[in-house]
Specification:
The structure is a single chain. By secondary structure, this protein is α+β, with helices and mostly antiparallel strands. Helix content is 32%, strand content 22%. The chain is built from 13 helices and 29 strands. The protein has a 16-stranded mixed sheet that branches. A three-stranded antiparallel sheet has the order 27-28-29. A two-stranded antiparallel ribbon has the order 17-18. Strand 1 and strand 2 form a beta hairpin. Helix 8 runs antiparallel to helix 9 and helix 11 runs parallel beside helix 13. The radius of gyration is 25 Å and the shape is globular. It starts with 9 loop residues before the first strand and ends with a helix.
Length: 608
C-alpha cells in the first residue's frame, strides 16, 4: 500500500467554496467540485487506481522535496531539488465570491529557480468518485475533460516565445500527460477550471503571477485582522487560516474537514465523511476566531444558524439537526463506495453521514454559547434571532432529560450522557445572560429552574463517588474527555476538589504520554469494531483544563509536545496513532480550533 502518501504528507489549498489536498510529491489526490461536499474529481487518496489525480513532478530522479506555505497565506509551494536544478510548483485557488458558483480555478504555477528541470504532468480526473466516465479532447491551448454533466477545462500558461514547449498526449483512459523543460527564471503553469466560459485559452505568465499576488494579498489582509500576538503566533495563525479555508463563503458554514473516509484506524471501519457542517464544530470555531478578534465569521455563522432553525426539516428530532450540507440542506444520506479500496485498504469508504439523524443535546449549548460570545464581542442578536432562541429553549426545557447518542456519535444506542446534560445547562445559562444583559422579554424564571435542575442532576447522577470523578454517562464508571470542557464553560470551578479529582482520573485512564483518548471503547462499547488513536481535540482540551486548574507548567509542556505532532506545515488530522502518525480526516477543524483555545488560555494566564 505504499502508493498512498502518509496523511500528514499533504498541504491544503482552497477558495472558500471547496479545497484540494496536495502531497509533498506535488500530486493533488483529493479535490471535490464545485463544493466541499460535492463528488470528487481527484480521489486517489482513497483509491490510487480508480480515484484520479493531478500530478506534477520532475521527470527523473534523484530529487528531494520540500513544502511550505507562502507566509501568512493558503498558497502552497512544493519544491523539487535535483542535482541539475531546483523547481517549484506553486499551488493556490483564487478566492471565490460570496455567492454560490460552479466556476472554480486550480492554479499550478511552475517555475525553475536554479539550473534546469524537466517536469512531467499527468491530469487524470475521475468524476463522481470514479463512477462517471469522461472523454478528453486536446485543443491548441489546452484540453477539455467532459463527463457529460460535469466538465473541466485545462488552460496552459506559457510565454509569447513558446511555440510548443511542452510535449502533450492523451491516454486511452482520457488522461492528459505532458513533459516540459524549464530553465532558471522561467515561469509556466496550468489552470484547471470548472464551468469555464469558452474553450481553453493561453494564459500568459504575467496573468498567473497576478492571480498569485491577488491571492496572497487576500490571505495576508484577512489574517492581519487577527489580534493575536502571543508566543505561539505561527501555530495559531496557521490554525486560523485553516479554519477559514474550511468555510463555505456563500453561507458562512464551516465543514469539519475537507475529506471523507480517512481512517481512525488503518484497515478499520471507522471511516466517516466529514465534509459537512456540524452545529458543534462550527460553534466552537466561531468562539475560537472571536478570541482572535476575527468577527466576520461569527456574524455569518449566526445568520446561517438562524436560517437552519427557520428551515428545520420535518423529520429532525429537535429544532436543529446535528449537521447539514454547506448550503444548509439536511439530506446527508449515507452510502458506501464499494468500488473504492479505501486509504491503505481501510474499508468501507462512506459518503454522506447517517449520524445526522441522531439526537445530540449538547449542540444547543454550543450554539447558544457561540451566540452569547458573539454578543459579548458586539455582534448583537436581532429580534428574529431572539425569537428563535425563545422557541429553541421552549423545546429544550421539555427535552433535555432524554437519552441521546452523545457528542461522539456512537452507534450503540442512546444513553444519559453527562456532557449532553452539561451543555444543556450552558444553553439555559447563556440564554438567561442574554436576556438580562439586553433587557429582552423571556421566561427567565422557567429557564433558571431548568438550569438548576440540570445542575443538580449532573452532580447527583453524573458524579461517581467510587471513581471520584464525573463519568461519561449516568450509571457507568467510564470516563470521557468531553468533560474536560466543564470548567471552560463555567459549570464547575476549575479548582473545585471534585473537578481536580476528575482531572486526575482522566489523566490516569485516558492520557498516554500526554496524548488523550476520547474514551475507552472496550469499557463503553460504541457499536463499532476496532480501536482508534488519541484524539487531538481532547489533548488540547486537556492542556486548557490543566492550565485553568493551576497546573500551568505541565500544560505548557503538553502543548509544546503536541506541536511536534503537527505535520511539516502545522496541520493536524483528527487523531494521532501509536507511532505518532496522523489518522482520520485531514485537516480537522476541531483540532485547530482547540489549539487556538489552548494557546489563548495559556497566554491569558501568563498575563495575570
Amino acid at each position: 500500500m505504499d502508493q498512498y502518501a502518509p496523511i500528514a504528507d499533504h498541504g491544503l489549498i482552497g477558495d472558500l467554496h471547496t479545497a484540494a489536498l496536495v502531497s509533498t510529491e506535488g500530486t493533488i489526490d483529493w479535490f471535490c467540485c464545485p463544493r466541499f461536499d460535492s463528488p470528487s474529481v481527484f480521489g486517489a487518496l482513497l483509491d490510487h487506481r480508480r480515484g484520479g489525480h493531478f500530478a506534477i513532478r520532475p521527470a527523473r530522479g534523484p530529487y528531494t522535496t520540500k513544502q511550505l506555505y507562502f507566509p501568512d497565506t493558503a498558497v502552497l509551494i512544493t519544491r523539487f531539488l535535483a542535482p541539475g536544478g531546483t523547481g517549484e510548483v506553486v499551488d493556490f485557488m483564487p478566492p471565490g465570491p460570496r455567492s454560490a458558483t460552479g466556476n472554480h480555478r486550480l492554479v499550478r504555477m511552475l517555475r525553475c529557480v536554479r539550473g534546469q528541470i524537466d517536469f512531467e504532468v499527468e491530469v487524470a480526473p475521475r468524476f463522481d468518485y470514479g463512477r462517471q466516465p469522461h472523454s478528453a479532447v486536446l485543443t491548441e491551448h489546452g484540453a477539455i475533460f467532459d463527463a457529460g454533466t460535469h466538465a473541466l477545462t485545462l488552460h496552459v500558461a506559457r510565454g509569447h516565445e513558446d511555440v510548443r514547449q511542452a510535449e502533450v498526449w492523451v491516454s486511452q483512459d482520457g488522461d492528459v500527460g505532458a513533459a516540459l523543460t524549464l530553465t532558471a527564471g522561467q515561469v509556466r503553469g496550468i489552470v484547471l477550471e470548472s464551468a469555464a466560459e469558452g474553450a481553453p485559452r493561453v494564459i500568459r505568465p504575467a496573468e498567473v503571477r497576478q492571480l498569485f499576488e491577488e491571492t496572497v494579498r487576500f490571505w495576508q489582509s484577512w489574517l492581519a485582522g487577527s489580534s493575536y500576538r502571543g508566543r505561539w503566533r505561527e501555530a495559531v495563525n496557521r490554525s486560523a487560516v485553516t479554519l477559514k479555508l474550511l468555510t463555505y463563503a456563500p453561507t458562512g458554514a464551516m465543514v469539519a474537514a475537507p475529506t471523507a473516509g480517512l481512517p481512525e484506524q488503518l484497515g478499520g471501519e471507522r471511516n466517516w465523511d466529514y465534509r459537512y457542517t456540524w452545529i458543534r464544530d462550527a460553534s466552537f470555531s466561531v468562539n475560537s476566531l472571536l478570541g482572535l478578534g476575527l468577527r466576520t465569521e461569527a456574524e455569518d455563522f449566526a445568520h446561517w444558524l438562524g436560517d437552519r432553525y427557520e428551515q428545520r426539516p420535518e423529520h429532525a428530532d429537535g429544532p436543529l439537526q446535528l449537521m447539514y450540507r454547506v448550503d444548509g440542506s439536511a439530506d446527508l444520506h449515507e452510502e458506501v463506495l464499494g468500488h473504492w479500496e479505501g486509504y491503505r485498504g481501510s474499508r468501507p469508504v462512506r459518503i454522506g453521514n447517517e449520524a445526522a439523524g441522531q439526537l445530540q443535546l449538547d449542540i444547543y449549548g454550543e450554539a447558544l454559547d457561540s451566540l452569547y460570545q458573539a454578543d459579548q464581542h458586539g455582534l448583537r442578536l436581532g429580534q428574529r434571532g431572539w425569537q428563535a432562541v425563545l422557541e429553541l429553549l421552549d423545546w429544550l426545557a421539555v427535552n433535555w432529560n432524554r437519552p441521546e447518542e452523545g457528542i461522539w456519535e456512537t452507534r450503540g444506542g442512546r444513553a444519559d450522557f453527562t456532557y449532553g446534560r452539561v451543555m444543556s445547562w450552558v444553553a439555559f445559562d447563556r440564554a438567561i445572560r442574554l436576556a438580562e444583559q439586553s433587557g429582552r422579554p423571556s421566561p427567565a424564571q422557567r429557564w433558571r429552574q431548568e438550569r438548576d435542575r440540570v445542575h443538580t442532576q449532573v452532580f447527583t447522577h453524573g458524579w461517581d463517588p467510587v471513581r471520584a470523578a464525573f463519568v461519561q454517562q449516568y450509571g457507568s464508571t467510564v470516563l470521557d474527555s468531553s468533560l474536560l470542557r466543564m470548567p471552560k464553560v463555567g459549570f464547575i470551578a476549575p479548582r473545585d476538589p471534585l473537578w481536580l479529582s476528575t482531572l486526575s482520573a482522566i489523566g490516569t485512564d485516558l492520557v498516554s504520554d500526554s496524548l488523550v483518548y476520547r474514551y475507552d471503547p472496550a469499557a463503553s462499547p460504541d457499536g463499532l469494531a476496532g480501536a482508534e488513536g488519541t484524539f487531538s481535540l481532547c489533548t488540547f482540551g486537556y492542556v486548557d483544563a490543566l492550565a485553568r486548574a493551576g497546573q500551568v507548567a505541565r500544560a505548557r509542556l503538553i502543548f509544546d509536545k503536541m506541536l511536534t505532532y503537527a505535520n511539516h506545515l502545522g496541520l493536524y488530522a483528527e487523531e494521532v496513532g501509536p507511532t505518532g502518525e496522523q489518522l482520520g480526516n485531514f485537516p480537522q477543524a476541531f483540532t485547530h480550533l482547540a489549539l487556538i483555545d489552548a494557546a489563548l488560555t495559556l497566554d491569558q494566564i501568563d498575563q495575570r
